[in-house]
Design brief:
Blueprint: H1 2-6, E1 17-18, E2 27-28, E3 33-34, H2 48-58, E4 84-93, H3 119-126, E5 131-134, E6 151-162, E7 176-184, H4 191-203, H5 209-218, E8 235-241
Parallel strand pairs: 2-8
Antiparallel strand pairs: 1-3, 4-7, 4-8, 5-6, 6-7
Helix pairs in contact: 3-4, 3-5
Length: 242
């Protein structure tokens, strides 16, 4: 992004401020960022459509595109002005072996071992995650851990059926796509992947829905089951709301 922006010949080097970071292997359907761009004296400020066209021209070789641009006030910040962030996690049920994952879905979903999951149990368990809690058990430890509050408010936690890419072409194979959707102002380090992994463990019968409540109450990252971390490939940042 910054390299593409430098090709627009700004007077001052450009720095993008992204709304949020994700683990390696996680995808973004839509992310947001802000930048300050100053043109040479005498040149008019970029119009939104002009900026979109210019950036996308220089981004051609990259798997990323600018979808929209808006002029904002000087006190706007892509990260700190966000009201909420929405993530979805894509699950594929019905696979008895990883080779059964459709080739176009590889690295874009997670097919947990054992085929099908107990979805009603997962939906019951997800209700325990709603609201304001200390999510210490549901975060991975990193250098920021001592400085960040573990309290977060989950505004949405849903488990719903979904459609796969070209899924109508392989309906006969008995594959089912489901989406887990989470919305909060912010999330802790790897919190979504841990919540997904715990809910899948409920669906597999390794945990009960009430275990989710107990994990929240323990408030200790070391109490989290080591087998219950969801891989990054199924996780998508869907949108950032302002």
């Amino acid at each position: 992004l910054q390299k593409a922006a430098q090709n627009l010949k700004p007077v001052v080097p450009i720095k993008f401020h992204i709304s949020s970071r994700t683990d390696s292997g996680v995808h973004a359907l839509c992310n947001s960022a802000h930048l300050d761009i100053q043109r040479a004296p005498g040149k008019p400020a970029f119009q939104e459509r002009e900026l979109i066209r210019g950036l996308n021209h220089h981004l051609k070789p990259e798997p990323i595109r600018i979808l929209s641009a808006y002029r904002v006030t000087n006190n706007f910040h892509a990260r700190f002005s966000a009201l909420s962030r929405t993530y979805i996690y894509r699950l594929l049920m019905g696979c008895t072996h990883h080779s059964e994952i459709p080739v176009f879905e590889r690295d874009l979903c997670w097919a947990p071992a054992g085929g099908y999951l107990n979805v009603p149990a997962m939906q019951d368990a997800a209700r325990f995650l709603l609201g304001t809690h200390d999510f210490s058990t549901f975060r991975s430890l990193n250098s920021e851990t001592p400085f960040r509050s573990p309290v977060r408010t989950i505004l949405q936690a849903d488990v719903r059926p979904s459609s796969g890419f070209l899924s109508h072409h392989y309906e006969y194979r008995g594959l089912e796509f489901w989406e887990l959707k989470f919305r909060s102002r912010s999330f802790l380090y790897r919190q979504v992947r841990r919540m997904v992994g715990a809910l899948v463990a409920v669906g597999q019968g390794k945990l009960t829905p009430h275990h989710i409540k107990e994990l929240l109450e323990v408030k200790d990252a070391r109490a989290f089951p080591p087998y219950a971390m969801a891989p990054p490939s199924g996780l998508f940042l869907k949108s950032v709301e302002y």
